[in-house]
Amino acid sequence: MDSLLSQIYADVLPLVGQGKVADYIPALSKVEANQFGIAICSNDGEIFSIGDADVPFSIQSISKVFNLVLAMEYYGDAIWEKVGREPSGLPFNSMAQLEYEQGIPRNPFINAGALVISDMNQSKFATPNIAVREFVKKLSGNPSIQIDRIVADSEYDHRSRNAAMAYLMKSFNNFDNEVEKVLRNYFCNCALTMSCVDLAKSINFLANKGYSQLMDTQVLTPNETRQVNALMATSGLYDEAGSFAFRVGLPGKSGVGGGIIAIVPGRFSVCVWSPALNSVGNSLAGAAALESMTKHIGWSVY
Amino acid sequence: MDSLLSQIYADVLPLVGQGKVADYIPALSKVEANQFGIAICSNDGEIFSIGDADVPFSIQSISKVFNLVLAMEYYGDAIWEKVGREPSGLPFNSMAQLEYEQGIPRNPFINAGALVISDMNQSKFATPNIAVREFVKKLSGNPSIQIDRIVADSEYDHRSRNAAMAYLMKSFNNFDNEVEKVLRNYFCNCALTMSCVDLAKSINFLANKGYSQLMDTQVLTPNETRQVNALMATSGLYDEAGSFAFRVGLPGKSGVGGGIIAIVPGRFSVCVWSPALNSVGNSLAGAAALESMTKHIGWSVY
Amino acid sequence: MDSLLSQIYADVLPLVGQGKVADYIPALSKVEANQFGIAICSNDGEIFSIGDADVPFSIQSISKVFNLVLAMEYYGDAIWEKVGREPSGLPFNSMAQLEYEQGIPRNPFINAGALVISDMNQSKFATPNIAVREFVKKLSGNPSIQIDRIVADSEYDHRSRNAAMAYLMKSFNNFDNEVEKVLRNYFCNCALTMSCVDLAKSINFLANKGYSQLMDTQVLTPNETRQVNALMATSGLYDEAGSFAFRVGLPGKSGVGGGIIAIVPGRFSVCVWSPALNSVGNSLAGAAALESMTKHIGWSVY
Amino acid sequence: MDSLLSQIYADVLPLVGQGKVADYIPALSKVEANQFGIAICSNDGEIFSIGDADVPFSIQSISKVFNLVLAMEYYGDAIWEKVGREPSGLPFNSMAQLEYEQGIPRNPFINAGALVISDMNQSKFATPNIAVREFVKKLSGNPSIQIDRIVADSEYDHRSRNAAMAYLMKSFNNFDNEVEKVLRNYFCNCALTMSCVDLAKSINFLANKGYSQLMDTQVLTPNETRQVNALMATSGLYDEAGSFAFRVGLPGKSGVGGGIIAIVPGRFSVCVWSPALNSVGNSLAGAAALESMTKHIGWSVY
Asked: PANTHER family attached here (chains A, B, C, D) (predicted)?
């Protein structure tokens, strides 16, 4: 594993810093581009890492996975009456599609879908952002994980696009709570600050049939675990999901903070991070690292 | 394996005949709905089957896989300058998306994408429909596979929608040959008549890192094989690809003739057939059979 | 004129009550469908009317005309940097078009356009809804015109769709003020309660080269007047503007309260009202009355 | 009138040659940009002209008016079952809208609508392009009007986009004849070569309640005439119809050859020509000339 990480590191180093750090909110734009880390968490609990794998970063859309898993525990299949399971074929914040499909978002990993999931969690938890934070603390075994309030507030100040989506869904009766309240909680989830090691640990249950070693708990059933992985495989990388499947071939989820998580079912979970993004908003060096990884192990899920 | 097939058969029997046989051309609408078959071809060459697994049927869009594999052999990565690799998020014959994306179809498994691949094969082969037919004869080891000319002619007579897509791509300079000629060949490929057993054999190389036992040939490299499987996994079932990944979790490709092929990488290939379709055009009992299969084996790629 | 009105009345009577009273908010749905009135205000100030021409009704989108005229006085051509002048070719509340055209609404008479105009007025007036109310009081010479607060509040409670549009425009930097505040004022304008006679008087300046007799003021220049009429002619009746031009041939503006105003340039202004609407949201009997009118006078602007 | 034309000429001269001559087919791209002409035909038959008013040019989409008038004579209101009467709000050759509205084009002046009208004329006339040519010969009193076969053939060679639209409508059963045959005739109509004087004379009946002095015939009823003018007013200038109404305020129809016809109902017809086009495909100097004209006469239909 350590030599695999060294090979990946060597492959990817020339790409680190290429691309563009997310700049739609000031708080994110200040992150130093020249950073790169990977962490692997094997199903027997070992951690392997290289580079900036312990530097906390803004997990952003990776939080959609935790949000979904939390909702699945409470709602089960009822989720799929309010959110679809199909790739969107359009940018992650498309209004046209949401209008055409009458307020039912295509999947839980585009923004509209994540907002519906947040709305469902809002109906279950007094303070959903605390619930999600406590959940990832337990999953990662790291009690010091924080929400970056400056990031969360800044995202709220730039909420227009997400507010438009939430109100559109509300107009189709697919959104129950107050828009502003749900957005506040949603942005807090996005503003969770975690390292590659934290994330690799947190998601290991998805590589391990739903069982979390750290929590010694079955977080999801094996079948639900396959479902979450299937959703990540078809819809986890915005409008690049197909190309990611083609190049990398693993279920994964990216965030505009530069993180990407991926699952090697039955073996290990992985998290890469490098803040500079490609044109569709995925970590440029991060995606390349995962491509290098599957090339070196000569294996993908397909 | 035989007991697996019996279990699936029992699970699915109540669904056989539910749905609606494709009726956009008269030749297809006459097929008896109450038929169902499965064939499995293991990577060591054994065949297992049940039901109407030897009855030949119109493979329709399953031919897009053979068409693509043939083109990959000649064009390699140049294919992806003319066709995308992303799920479409829209019906298989959407014009709006094709217009918006300036004549570059989203992937090779929607009609527009398959037409571009056919156009590429037209530039390489004197009679591409014969080339494809000979290819599947070799892959399946069945020299008697035929093109149903009545079906092919009937599809040509109802070509308007496909002609519209081809001309639209031509207007964006993404289509080189004469539209009518390419359509003729394309419809001949769709009109190939094969059984579940033929198809399971023909695609076994996709479960076997690109190696065909029957032909004793490396049809594709292992990496290309994973690429084709990834494309099937994200885009193989029209606008139901995500839901198929969620329920079944295998790379697959369907056709309106009622066939669905699927790949269990490293182990076996499978073909199910039942002519009655669900609302998005996939075999209703066929998809249920594959879902039953992954439930019984407790495994999917995810 | 009186005999013209009698003829129209006879023509239209069988249609009164056909269609469906607006029911998206409770306050509007209670209006008795079987009402019908017309008032004509000639350029020399005479009023002719028949039926329920003195019954006040909710003017709804007709207020968009007053809103626009007010903004034109302050902003002049700067308006057209934020709003287009083209018919929309889509329903009045389309999000897809607004997204595609990056937050610039097609014209000031679809909802998104009227919201931008309201946003501009918000930047000029402390309480824009009072400014518009005072404006129509002067234009109509009726100091008792009121805003129906029950209607305004009910519309605010059902604001999701309009809020989604406003936030979407805000995300494209085409909306300056707080969304909720602008919506409040916008709904107050829609909730103005006026009769056919009030409205025919209020808009007479549009038939009279911009000169209001009642106010003895040039409200708009002759050129601006032609511009407002041109906008009404191409975009005044939602997605039925072309058909209204074809059948009626006069600049006009409708509201879901069942009112339609129309202009016979150089001669007179007219307002019809009948609450039951056709499928695109225009007064069924009202549009028929205007069609009857242009047939009887054998004249349209075309 | 002569002094009006001189004023317009002076206003517009600085703009002549600005913009870009149509270059989608070689035959049109060779036209010298620096040309400009206007001709007015008054309702009492007098002709006034200035500049290159006698130079024949390719009338292109202006032919859609003649095509429609011919079809109206044979089909009456049945036309409107196959074509709408609404502005499109999208470019003249949009496929997305045509798909969304199931093969019913928005109006007879976008390409798809004109193709449906051509298809209807194909069902009535042995050689529709000859029928249209003979019609304009009579309307203009000029027996030497020709179809430019080089232009017509070149357009046919570049037919892909129009073929795509025709086939799409055929797939919705809104197109009866063979696509290629209809396109041939359609392009012949577009390739008619006429001067400003020819066109001003030909369309004078639209300014004269349907009565053609030259033919001494009632070509259309007064009501039908108003209908054609209404359609031109709302849909005659592609995706600039609203802006043209706003700036000019007359029913008009443009062509990519650089011609624009316009109607001053009850008074006169006018044709301007200047080959260089603005970004949406209308003659830049031509539109400016008509704007100058309505400014000088201080009158528009609105």
From this structure: GLUTAMINASE
Q: Is the pLDDT of residue D280 over 80?
A: yes
How far is residue D78's CA from residue D72's CA, in Å, rounded to a whole number?
A: 9
Query: pLDDT (tens digit, 9 = 90+) per residue, D118-154?
Result: 999 999 999 999 999 999 999 999 999 999 999 999 9
DSSP letters spanning D26-57 = HHHHTS-SS--EEEEEETTS-EEEEESTT--E
Report the residue of D168, D169, D174, D180 to disrupt the B interface, i.e. the one with the largest count of B CBs within 10 Å: D168
Total domains, chain B: 1
Chain B residues whose beta carbon lies within 8 Å of the beta carbon of residue D170: 160, 164
Residue D272: name the closest of D20, D3, D8 by CA.
D8
Mean local confidence (pLDDT), A284-288: 98
User: What residues of A form the annotated binding site for substrate?
Assistant: 61, 111, 155, 162, 186, 238, 256
Of the candidates C243, C89, C281, C66, the one whose C-alpha atom is nearest the C-alpha of residue D241 is C89
Q: How far is CA B140 from CA A239, B44, B60, B143, C118, in A?
A: 36, 15, 17, 8, 69
Query: What mean pLDDT is predicted for residues A44-65?
Result: 98
Q: What DSSP element (H or E) covers C229?
A: helix C222-235
DSSP string, C75-99: HGGGGGGTS--S--SS-TT-HHHHH
Which chain C residue has its CA at the smallest distance from A24's CA? C171
Q: What is the pLDDT of residues B36-65, one digit of tens each?
A: 999 999 999 999 999 999 999 999 999 999
**Nearest beta carbon to residue C87 from set D225, D226, D242:** D242
Tell whether A93 is covered by a domain. yes
- pLDDT score of C100: 86
Is the pLDDT score of C219 beyond 90? Answer: yes
> Which residues of chain B does D98 touch, with a Cβ-Cβ cutoff of 8 Å?
95
Q: What pLDDT is recorded for position B92?
A: 62
Shortest distance between the Cα of D239 and any Cα of chain B, in A, equals 17
Q: Is D94 on the interface with B (CB under 8 A)?
A: yes
Q: Distance from D145 to chain C by nearest Cα, in Å?
A: 29
Q: What pLDDT is attached to residue A90? A: 74
CATH number for the domain that contains residue C193 = 3.40.710.10
Which residues of B, range 243-272, sit inside 8 Å of A by Cβ? 243, 245-246, 249, 251, 263, 265
Asked if A51 and A211 touch (Cβ cutoff 8 Å), the reply is no
Q: Can you give the pLDDT at residue D92?
A: 62
Nearest Cα to Cα of residue D275 among D4, D12, D37: D37
Catalytic residue among B42, B58, B61, B254: B61
Contacts of B95 in chain D (CB under 8 A): 95-96, 98-99, 164, 168
DSSP B283: B
Q: How many CB atoms lie within 10 A of CB B73?
A: 13
Q: Is residue B302 part of a domain?
A: no
**Residue (of D98, A246, A110) closest to B107 by Cα position:** A246
Determine phi and psi for B203, rounding to 5 degrees: -100, 5
Query: For D30-86, what is each residue's pLDDT tens digit?
Result: 999 999 999 999 999 999 999 999 999 999 999 999 999 999 999 999 999 999 999
D119, D160, D175: best to mutate for the B interface, most B CBs within 10 A: D160
**Is the distance from CB of D78 to CB of D146 less than 8 angstroms?**
no
Chain A residue closest in CA terms to B291: A223
Distance CA A243, CA D128 (A): 50
Q: A161 and C179: CB-CB below 8 Å?
A: no
C147 three-state secondary structure: strand
For chain B, the first-to-last Cα distance in angstroms comes to: 21
Q: Does residue A166 sit within a domain?
A: yes
Please report whether residue C195 resides in a domain: yes
Q: Is there a catalytic annotation at residue B256? A: yes
Instruction: Write the residue in B234, B251, B298 that is nearest to A242 by C-beta.
Output: B234
**Residue C272 structural domain:** 2-296
